[in-house]
């Protein structure tokens, strides 16, 4: 739920109103904007300063033309805005399409639309990233059809609620509660305090999201932690997550200890950038350098910040069936929706043993299994015959292909029935998708850039996708440099304000002068935006 809207005449009064809502447990608010780019940003900054944990959406009330909307949207992206509602006049579909492609803040549209056909046109043109039907205007049946269509485009629905009768509020809550991807709801404050719902997070027993879900309340209050909108509800997280699933780096302090504040900031930044779900304990995340206790703490933090509706994948790198199952059970208990499993790699198994290993892990893990085929890391190849055999094993749903050349290997296994995702830091992203991949699992320092490329591909803008991808390649290649990859990932995250330190653990090495010089040049050319959130 988010509180709508802060309507006080001055920035100081809006800030005080936001602080008051934060004290009552609210984690999200919406600003009434459209006063001009500088004035809107000044109000945003005043509210953010008064309520630092609050996630802030902006409703421009159709006040801007495309140039101003792009300028404001880009600044809101740097500040981590929840969404940018009604930026342009409602009939300008092409303008919204251009805006959605040029900013990272989700463009939210829909209160002026009345049926599924209008929404289908906008969704097909990628002109919105958050659908906002007003159930009082569409009716419940039509709203549910809109939710289903939006789900097919992986676009969340946040029902709009104008100031109106309680029956319209109830209708919107029912649609939000029943929808497959309806992470929160607009709440118009009721002057009667006794009728205000609590926005305090639920207890850990239900895998809490950071905000109050639609139509739900908690009996207890605690300090809320804000997070970007969940992309799926807990009861509809798929057995096989697809799309953009970054491997989270593991932030350490300068002294080498786990840094929970930076980890929370990292998860928030990934979801805000458009990730379909995070993965932990992968190679890019220094999973090899973590203790059992640290793995449990990391998964707990990620699950809490991501909320129950976002799929979380946990890496498993055991050196035997027994140790792999131990890690898989811990992941399942900690809230992972799937495990990504490497084959044993110290005592290297033969082809028949590889099949036996994965079959036993899938049978006993208690959570769906993704095969991670990374022979350059493990020295254990998994050939097409083994993949085909494993595709018939219950509990194995997908494969991450990291055996070069990945496009050819993706093509070779796409007919096995397993869901295929690419790896290798997205070095061959477009070719992998051309050959049957339906997801990618790269490092996490450029998720916002990859989101734009994948959206362009989905919309048929291949030339734009290829141009943006080519521009990224130098950074992608530095992120797989032997011995330096982990330092590169973290240095980029540090410079973008997402984590506090670029420290790594042995056997990873700190950034060396040659790599540091190359990285400086690449980052100067890319001019990546900073993340407003940051560790806290």
Short description:
The chain is an alpha/beta fold. Helices cover 42% and strands 10% of the residues. Helix 1 (11-23) runs parallel beside helix 2 (37-50), helix 9 (260-272) crosses helix 10 (292-306) and helix 17 packs antiparallel against helix 18 (462-478).
Describe the structure in your own words.
With 536 residues, this protein is an alpha/beta fold. It has 2 domains: 2-191, Enolase-like C-terminal domain (TIM Barrel, Alpha-Beta Barrel), CATH 3.20.20.120; 236-526, TIM Barrel, CATH 3.20.20.70. It is built from 20 helices and 15 strands. It has helices spanning 11-23, 37-50, 66-78, 93-102, 116-124, 135-138, 140-152, 166-178, 260-272, 292-306, 321-334, 351-364, 375-378, 384-391, 406-413, 429-434, 447-458, 462-478, 485-495, 513-526; strands at 2-6, 28-32, 55-59, 84-85, 107-109, 130-131, 186-187, 243-244, 279-280, 313-316, 338-341, 369-373, 396-401, 419-422, 439-440. Strands 6-5-4-3-2-1-7 form a 7-stranded parallel beta sheet, with helices on one face. α3 runs parallel beside α4 (93-102) and α5 packs parallel to α7 (140-152). The longest helix has 17 residues, at 462-478. Residues 191-236 have low confidence and may be disordered.
